[in-house]
From TrEMBL:
Native organism taxonomy: Bacteria, Bacillati, Bacillota, Bacilli, Bacillales
Any one GO CC term of the record: plasma membrane
Membrane association type: Multi-pass membrane protein
Domain of life: Bacteria
Protein name per the record: Carbohydrate ABC transporter permease
Transmembrane segments: 51-79, 91-110, 122-143, 164-189, 246-266
Organism: Paenibacillus sedimenti
Coiled-coil regions listed: none
Key word GTP-binding present: no
Keyword vocabulary terms for this entry: Cell membrane, Membrane, Transmembrane, Transmembrane helix, Transport
UniProt similarity note: Belongs to the binding-protein-dependent transport system permease family.
One GO process term, biological-process aspect: transmembrane transport
The keyword Secreted belongs to this UniProt entry's keyword annotation: no
InterPro entries for the chain: MetI-like, MetI-like_sf
Domain ABC transmembrane type-1: 56-255
Length: 281
């Protein structure tokens, strides 16, 4: 277990050390667990970009709304197709699963988004992925493992389907909802390609990941000196303040920290959801 922990944590600790080290000095290498020359210049450089704060807000907003809406809608559909009395459950399930293996492609998808009038809109981040098929299957498997007597008792007490879902099913499937929420949140937080496709001309709808990707591209194209040249010029007043290696490490830390902070609160639900969901009671 100690070896596993070391192998798992070392890359992150090393990346953190590089991000906190002077960029020109980091080119020399040999940075392992601690920075050789401590500095926050890499973070200052990244957050000096004008759109970073706005992009961070959009990323948080799309992560929160996207996760809540996707999980709730996926849970409703999963509850529907888990009911034996629903005569179209097999057809609907196959229709959803079919989309996991076949899609229209990038260009038809773009044309569909355009025809729906969602280009240049915040909702293009939410609506196209409002139902995740993998999440749907996971939630449905969990619901099918619930005792039938609980749902029958609710129906005898006069609860309708929606009331049964809200008052009975949702409280019982919190573990699997937490698991799926983590998947959705990570996907929303790390997504940038949809910004590139649909909202690249709308700076106020840009996300943190997309802005960090642009910073890295700009750094890679403008910082063309070799490692030997950078080291040789490190004493010069015109020496580089950032390098692609330092910026890449800084971006990795910025993008990872929010998810790392959320995960401990969901860990117990995550473990329970992944184990109990696969066993039918």
């Amino acid at each position: 277990m100690i070896c596993l922990v070391v192998v798992t944590l070392y890359p992150f600790v090393n990346t953190l050390a590089v991000s906190l080290n002077d960029a020109n000095d980091a080119v020399r290498g040999d940075i392992y667990l601690l920075p050789r020359m401590w500095t926050l210049d890499n973070y200052k450089y990244v957050f000096s970009e004008a759109l970073i704060i706005q992009a961070s807000f959009i990323s948080v907003l799309r992560t929160v709304l996207g996760t809540v809406i996707t999980v709730f809608c996926s849970a409703m559909v999963a509850f529907t197709i888990s009911r034996q009395e629903y005569v179209l459950r097999k057809f609907v399930s196959i229709s959803f699963i079919f989309t996991m293996y076949f899609s229209g492609g990038l260009i038809p998808g773009y044309l569909l988004i355009r025809d729906l009038g969602m280009l240049g809109s915040f909702w293009v981040y939410i609506i196209p992925g409002i139902i995740g098929v993998f999440n749907l299957i996971v939630i449905r498997s969990f619901i099918e493992g619930l005792p039938d007597g609980i749902l029958e008792a609710a129906r005898i007490d006069g609860a309708g389907d929606f009331a049964m879902f809200i008052r009975v099913v949702l409280p019982l499937i919190v573990p699997v909802l937490a698991t799926v929420s983590l998947f959705c949140a990570v996907g929303q937080w790390n997504s940038w390609f949809d910004v590139f496709l649909y909202n690249s001309s709308k700076d106020y709808l840009s996300t943190l990941q997309y802005e960090l990707m642009k910073i890295l591209q700009n750094t890679n194209t403008t910082q063309t000196q070799s490692a030997a040249e950078v080291f040789a010029n490190s004493a010069n007043t015109n020496a580089l303040t950032v390098t692609p290696t330092a910026i890449r490490a800084t971006m990795t830390i910025i993008a990872s920290v929010p998810i790392i902070m959320v995960y401990p609160f969901l860990q117990k639900y995550f473990v329970k959801g992944m184990t109990v969901g696969g066993v039918k009671g």
